[in-house]
Write a structure and sequence with these properties.
The protein is α/β, with parallel strands linked by helices. Helix content is 27%, strand content 30%. Helix 2 (86-100) crosses helix 3, helix 5 runs parallel beside helix 6 (244-251) and helix 9 (319-335) runs parallel beside helix 10 (354-367). The radius of gyration is 24 Å and the shape is globular.
């Protein structure tokens, strides 16, 4: 039988980028856009490791290649050459776990384990809810590496359930790989709702079908601040979702708590979360309505108003309109505050900077004609740390009015 020649080995995928992109990568930025590519030796596959060289043909970085995304390379490593073997990946994950080790005590088993680019896993996040890990992917470039990631997590979190969540833009390609959003990869999560604890309070997370990975873990620190301000106050939690701020206000001794949201499903979840915590005695009222309309029309007064809307600027072209909307929303909230009342206004719009947002709320405070003082501003919680500008989406401001 004649010898069959071996298939030729593919050459390493080699890229060169624009001088501006080269400078950004050298400074640690994790994204390289298609428009920045200046040379490519061959076509590349989604998830293939691409090596970027500088203009002197020296190693610059290595990252995950995605031929179908304008964000063409997500950088994994830059500086000196490295072999991305099992040990490299294990070390990268252990570094993320070590960052969280001092953050939480035994009363908290819900937190972000891996925060995408800021932990060196661009386009991938992992959230923990009790004994369930939810892995969310934002790029198909992770599909070839998913088995390795799941294996590393299983070694460090034995007997945990593993759930896969996928951003909408990659779900069609995921099905080609036998993957789908809400897929249970390991263990059991019952009906898909997992109960976890945050500083001793019990919450449910809808890990198979809920928004994001099932809960909004990023506002934990602001919820704790609300708890400190809540004693004896009538509290309005607008855009309440599943009642996170409401439960903290109740534990802080609020006189009355209103959870306001347009979603009946979200309000049902808020009521279930209240029921999970029988020690909470503050009366809890749910109101289903459009927050913008309700705030403009109601004549009810409150002593603490929480405004935490979904993103109002999903793209750069919406930035100016979002800034105006944040100001209008803050103004309507301020009008509902009794003397001595406190406003918490928050934003998760990455296209609106922290200073732009804070200034919009401060301007609304000044225009109210009331005396006010700024109590606190905040951005990202430690488990949601942001290491580059585009990752800095969360900001909040607390203001008290005479």
């Amino acid at each position: 039988m004649p010898d069959v020649p071996a298939a030729p080995t593919r050459s390493r995928l080699r890229l060169r980028v624009s001088p501006a992109a080269e400078a950004h990568v050298r400074a640690g930025h994790p994204w390289v856009y298609e428009s920045s590519l200046r040379a490519q030796n061959r076509d590349g596959d989604a998830g293939e490791l691409a090596v970027i060289y500088d203009r002197r043909d020296r190693f610059l970085a290595i990252g995950l290649f995605d031929p179908d995304s304008p964000l063409r390379v997500r950088v994994l490593h830059q500086g000196t050459p490295a072999t991305l073997d099992d040990a490299w990946w294990a070390t990268r994950l252990d570094e993320a776990l070590l960052r969280r080790a001092p953050l939480f005590g035994p009363d908290t088993d819900g937190y972000r384990v891996v925060n995408g680019e800021s932990d060196g896993f661009p386009g991938l996040v992992v959230d923990r809810y009790a004994s369930t890990l939810v892995v969310k992917l934002y790029t198909a470039a992770w599909f070839p590496h998913l088995e390795r990631i799941l294996g590393l997590l299983a070694e460090r979190f034995p007997k945990f359930a593993l759930v896969l969540r996928l951003s909408r833009n990659i779900q069609t390609r995921a099905r080609e790989q036998g993957l789908f959003d809400g897929q249970l990869l390991e263990g059991s999560v019952g009906s898909g709702t997992v109960v976890f604890h945050e500083t001793g309070l019990a919450f449910e997370a809808e890990v198979l079908r809920g928004q994001k990975t099932g809960f909004f873990l990023d506002q934990r620190d602001n919820r704790r601040r609300v708890e400190k301000y809540a004693r004896g106050r009538r509290v309005l939690n607008a855009f309440s979702f599943s009642g996170g701020f409401s439960l903290y206000a109740a534990r802080g001794g609020a006189a009355h708590v209103v959870s306001l949201d347009i979603s009946a499903h979200a309000l049902d979840s808020a009521e279930r979360n209240y029921a999970l915590n029988p020690k909470l005695t503050a009366p809890h009222e749910t109101v289903q309505a459009d927050v913008f309309e309700w705030l403009a029309d109601t004549d009810r007064d409150f002593d603490l108003v929480i405004l935490d809307p979904p993103s109002l600027a999903r793209r750069e072209t919406e930035r100016a309109g979002a800034i105006r909307a944040y100001g209008k929303l803050a103004a309507d909230g301020i009008r509902r505050l009794a003397p001595g009342g406190i406003l918490l206004s928050a934003s998760c719009s990455a296209h609106v900077t922290a200073e732009e947002f804070w200034d919009a709320v401060r301007d609304a405070a000044t225009r109210s004609g009331r005396k006010w003082r700024e109590l606190h501003t905040s951005q990202h919680a430690p488990d949601h740390h942001a290491t580059f500008p585009e990752a800095q989406y969360l900001k909040a401001i607390f203001i008290q009015f005479d």
